[in-house]
């Protein structure tokens, strides 16, 4: 049986890998999938060698306490490569894990398709040549990315953004009221969605800030409620440990929903989220957004010296303008964040944000990204025969 190894190290990667596996399985139902993933990959039929929750960590020094777990995951995936001898490896985002693993796959003679380009255009541009040496093909999801790899032998194709199609389908099923009903949330009143991230350290760094911002907003708008979307890569025990240490948790009317972040976004009147894929998701769902983040002092210091772009919010990067309010590190105060959320809830700011992001949404394509990436994978598999 022909085996495909899949590596999706975080919640957003698991979502993208799920669609890819479904699209490839539709064309080749005989394929066997094994690897690293979360609940979505498992439901799609991937035999999980390493569960995604084991790698639910990010940052620089924040990784250190989890090194033993990461090394264990690395070893088990290495064993899977030796035992299953995959005909293709599909690496989804997560470059800090996947790029070193691509080198191991190259040495083992396994062709590599990288689905979702690492953000080499934002920081550590030296990885462009490293990727070209270790990866056979790249399925890029942003229209400007193929030009980044110009001059290298790496085959790069813009396949469109893989979330366009599923999020459009979801939005057609759920308006604001229907999403609230599906989540057992009150139909009336303003709701702000809180999305602090899918990794444990993100939850620790961001949730206190988000709750303090929510409390500041409640002081100005007492009728506002909040719904926290808990990523599937995190357990309720992870959340409860953080909540127990946060005094603001008891001052905020908070609902918790696990594993249904997109419905949470659709149910909300505004979103407060950390930087990352969520800004693209909110843009595609046409929900107004504020981005905020804090991390350790060392990680923040290092990021400032490595990152070469003016914003960490993907929607702003694609728009080449500060459309989405962004508050990072020292600027991330509860009062400033609450003020930006109040503006989205009260005035024309939400409409203006949606209008300015409309051409950005259009630039991401009309759907079919997973099918195009699967077609690239099929070509690579056929070349191995």
Short structural summary:
The chain is of the alpha/beta class and 385 residues long. It has 17 helices and 13 strands.
Characterise this structure.
Helices cover 48% and strands 16% of the residues. The chain contains 17 helices and 13 strands. It has two domains: 3-162 and 368-383, 3-Layer(aba) Sandwich (Rossmann fold); 165-363, Glycogen Phosphorylase B (Rossmann fold). Helix 8 (176-182) packs across helix 11 (261-267).
CATH second-level architecture of the largest domain:
3-Layer(aba) Sandwich
N-C termini distance: 12 Å
Order of helices and strands: EHEHEHEHEHEHEHHEHEHEHEHEHHEHHH
Tell me, what is the CATH class of the largest domain? Alpha Beta
How large is the share of residues in beta strands? 15-25%
Q: Assign an overall shape.
A: globular
Cα-atom Rg, whole angstroms? 20 Å
What level of helicity do the residues show?
Answer: 40-55%
In CATH, the topology of the largest domain is named: Rossmann fold
Structurally, the number of domains stands at 2
Helix/strand structural class? alpha/beta
- In spatial order, strands of the major sheet run 3-2-1-4-5-6-7
Which homologous superfamily in CATH is the superfamily of the largest domain? Glycogen Phosphorylase B
Low-confidence stretches: 59-64
Helical run tally: 17
């Amino acid at each position: 049986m022909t085996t495909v190894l899949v590596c999706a190290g975080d919640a957003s990667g698991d979502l993208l890998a799920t669609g890819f596996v479904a699209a490839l399985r539709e064309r080749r139902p005989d394929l066997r999938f094994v690897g690293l993933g979360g609940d979505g990959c498992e439901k799609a039929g991937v035999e999980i060698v390493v569960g995604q929750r084991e790698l639910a960590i990010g940052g620089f020094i924040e990784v250190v306490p989890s090194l033993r777990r990461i090394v264990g995951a690395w070893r088990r995936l290495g064993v899977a490569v030796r035992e299953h001898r995959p005909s293709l490896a599909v690496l989804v985002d997560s470059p800090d894990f996947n790029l070193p693993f691509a080198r191991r796959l190259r040495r083992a003679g396994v062709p590599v398709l990288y689905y979702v380009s690492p953000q080499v255009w934002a920081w550590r541009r030296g990885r462009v040549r490293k990727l070209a040496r270790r990866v056979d093909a790249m399925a890029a999801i942003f229209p400007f990315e193929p030009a980044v790899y110009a001059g290298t032998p790496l085959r790069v194709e813009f396949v469109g953004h893989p979330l366009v199609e599923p999020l459009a389908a979801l939005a057609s099923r759920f308006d604001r009221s229907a999403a609230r009903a599906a989540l057992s949330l009150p139909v009336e009143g303003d709701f702000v969605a809180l999305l602090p991230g899918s990794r444990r350290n993100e939850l620790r760094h961001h949730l206190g800030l988000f709750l303090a911002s929510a409390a500041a907003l409640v002081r100005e708008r007492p009728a506002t409620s909040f719904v926290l979307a808990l990523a599937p890569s995190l357990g309720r025990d992870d959340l409860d440990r953080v909540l127990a240490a946060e005094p603001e948790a008891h001052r905020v009317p908070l609902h918790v929903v696990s594993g249904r972040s997109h419905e949470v976004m659709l149910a909300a009147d505004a979103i407060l989220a950390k930087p990352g894929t969520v800004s693209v998701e909110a843009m595609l769902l046409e929900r107004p957004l504020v981005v905020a983040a804090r991390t350790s002092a060392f990680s923040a210091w290092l990021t400032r010296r490595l990152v070469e772009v003016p914003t960490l919010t993907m929607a702003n990067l694609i728009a080449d303008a500060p459309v989405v309010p962004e508050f990072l590190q020292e600027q991330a105060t509860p009062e400033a964040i609450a003020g930006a959320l109040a503006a989205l809830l009260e005035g024309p700011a939400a409409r203006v944000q949606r209008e300015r992001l409309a051409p950005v949404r259009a630039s991401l394509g009309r759907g079919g990204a997973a099918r195009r990436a699967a077609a690239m994978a099929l070509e690579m598999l056929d070349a191995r025969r």
